[in-house]
Amino acid sequence: MSGGSRHWQDEVVAGPGGAMTDEVGVITGPLTLRSTAAGDLLRIDVQYKDADEWYTLTGSPLAHHGDPAALHAAAVAAVRAGGGAGAPGRPAG
What we know:
With 93 residues, this protein is an alpha+beta fold. 15% of the residues lie in helices and 38% in strands. It has one helix at residues 68-81, and strands at 6-13, 19-21, 25-27, 30-38, 41-48, 55-56, 62-63. The strands form two sheets. Strands 1, 4, 5, 6 and 7 form a five-stranded antiparallel beta sheet that branches. The longest helix has 14 residues, at 68-81. The chain is globular.
């Protein structure tokens, strides 16, 4: 898809150890995960549910190799699992 961007957003409860962000470190609890594909990159941001501030999920942006929806789903699963989850392909912790 050329031009424009595509978006995915899900509500998720972070598992034990939460999700790792670049700006504030680990966040936990009910979160909103938003992924935006632009060109070959996928940016993944996370916020506390219903908050105003968005944070970058550590390891984002990353190349999506044509399947950004699958990477978004993998990010949701990783945050649900916790352990300081970051972008898919980034080791937890």
